[in-house]
Amino acid sequence: MKIAFTIARVLLGLLFAVFGLNGFLHFIPMPPPTGLAGQYMGALFVSHYLVLVFLLELAGGLLLLANRYVPLALLLLGPVVVNILLFHSLLAPQGLGLALVTTLLWGIVFTGIRRAFAGAFVQRVEV
Predict the structure, then answer these.
(1) Domain count within the chain
(2) Domain encompassing residue 35
(3) Residues near 90 by beta carbon (within 8 Å), at least 6 away in sequence
(4) 65 in a domain, yes or no?
(5) So what's the pLDDT on residue 125?
(6) 3-state secondary structure string across the chain
(7) What dihedral do alpha carbons 49, 99, 104, 113 form, nearest 10°?
(8) Consecutive 10-residue runs of the chain (127 residues): their mean pLDDT?
(9) What pLDDT was estimated at residue 1?
């Protein structure tokens, strides 16, 4: 299980570090999506919302690659993964495969360090 966790952590880190950097340096050519997905991405781009998303992706990916603050990296990347999954499920289904792989990798890494999140799943807090 430790080997699967390490492989998933490194792959997830590489995925987010590369795509986070690509958001700033544009070294992977990606044609803009069409239709409603294109309008959505256009609004995110014009509002500079994507700058924050790319920063979160880059920071989370680098933390995973460095094997430092892995729970924090998962907290940063969790909402990004959900948005990627929803975007490709609802607006651009051609990228759904990579979105599912990303979600699976995130789940494997989360399972490997689930003890770090034990406090988040407490039903009642005694004060």
Answers:
(1) 1
(2) 2-115
(3) none
(4) yes
(5) 85
(6) CHHHHHHHHHHHHHHHHHHHHHHHHCCCCCCCCCHHHHHHHHHHHHCCHHHHHHHHHHHHHHHHHHCCCHHHHHHHHHHHHHHHHHHHHHCCHHHHHHHHHHHHHHHHHHHHCHHHHHHHHCCCCCC
(7) -10
(8) 95 98 95 93 96 98 98 98 97 95 98 94 87
(9) 80
pLDDT of amino acid 65? 98
Question: Which tokens go with 57?
Answer: 């992706």
Lookup: tokens for 89 = 């499920």
Q: Is residue 124 part of a domain?
A: no
Radius of gyration of the chain (CA): 16
Residue 99 in tokens:
């979105």
